[in-house]
Amino acid sequence: xxEPTDKTEHSDDDAPLLPENLTSEDPGSRTLIxxxxxxxxxxxxxxxxxxxxxxxxxxxxxADVIAAEDTRRLQRLIRSLEVSPRGRTLSYxxxxxxSRTPELLDLVDAGATLLLVTDAxxxxxxxxxxxxxxxxxxxxxxxxxxxxxxxxLTALALSGxxxxxxxxxxxxxxxxxxxxxxxxxxxxxxxxxxxxxxPHRLEAMIRALHSEFGADRQACVTRELTKRYEEVIxxxxxxxxxxxxxxxxxxxxxxxxxxxxxxAPTEPEDHVHAVNELMSQGLRLKDAVxxxxxxxxxxxxxxxAAVVAART
Length: 312
Known about the structure:
It is built from 12 helices and 10 strands. With about 300 residues, the chain is of the alpha/beta class. It folds into 3 domains: about 20-150, 3-Layer(aba) Sandwich (Cobalt-precorrin-4 Transmethylase, domain 1); about 150-255, Tetrapyrrole methylase, C-terminal domain (Methyltransferase, Cobalt-precorrin-4 Transmethylase, Domain 2); about 270-310. Strands 3-2-4-1-5 form a 5-stranded parallel beta sheet, sandwiched between helices. The chain has a 5-stranded mixed beta sheet with strand order 6-7-10-8-9. Helix 7 links the parallel strand 6 (about 165-170) and strand 7. It is elongated, with a radius of gyration of 24 Å. It is found in: Cytoplasm. Keywords: Cytoplasm, Methyltransferase, rRNA processing, S-adenosyl-L-methionine, Transferase. It catalyses: cytidine(1402) in 16S rRNA + S-adenosyl-L-methionine = 2'-O-methylcytidine(1402) in 16S rRNA + S-adenosyl-L-homocysteine + H(+). Belongs to the methyltransferase superfamily. RsmI family.
């Protein structure tokens, strides 16, 4: 669930990934049979190494190729699990997905078993993997999953909020205006929502949720899931805002927000923040009020008065 960062690669990481390279580096490698290859997406622990599955250990030991979001983290995982991989390890992240995907698929076509792991949790869920699976489907290449830990589902289960219907929204946009626009779209979402956020941006996020969804909307912040200092804070957004303002936040964060109540009433005052956000992007007060009033279906006159009142 970590945000993508630049990775340090091995010195031979950009070498051509020809099938013979797989066996030449390891005399004990099996002979590859074209057409017998497959891709396995494997979930890795999100914190506690005890959550690694027996299947993950077996795959790490037996895969012909291990593609990892960060090869340094993979090495730490391998050491923790006391695994001895026989296959080649290489990087696969947002900066090389486009170029590396066809090369990986060629290896699988040649008969290799490719194991894809990310820094934590399930590949392709806010992590590399989607592009590979999409391309594999187009080439009729077998893809399977070795399920395991998921920060999304762990946070949802701990939140105490409805789990019968939910959606995953990933990271909100960093820019204030774009974030406000995204939350405006989600204001009437009835399903429970799960977000990821960086610790240094959590306060801004909670403040934006508070402004857009209201002080009483129920939510939950989870921090350092499954780790030693795991923390879960539940309550209305007003409580969470006070908590985040009074604490130094560290670690990996998942935020769960309750869905909008049925026929939730809105008042002009609820949309003042949205008007101010548009004005911060250069719109005149009159134009910003008109845009928000039309989008939220509130009285333009009453909204204008609410904005003016909030300034006095």
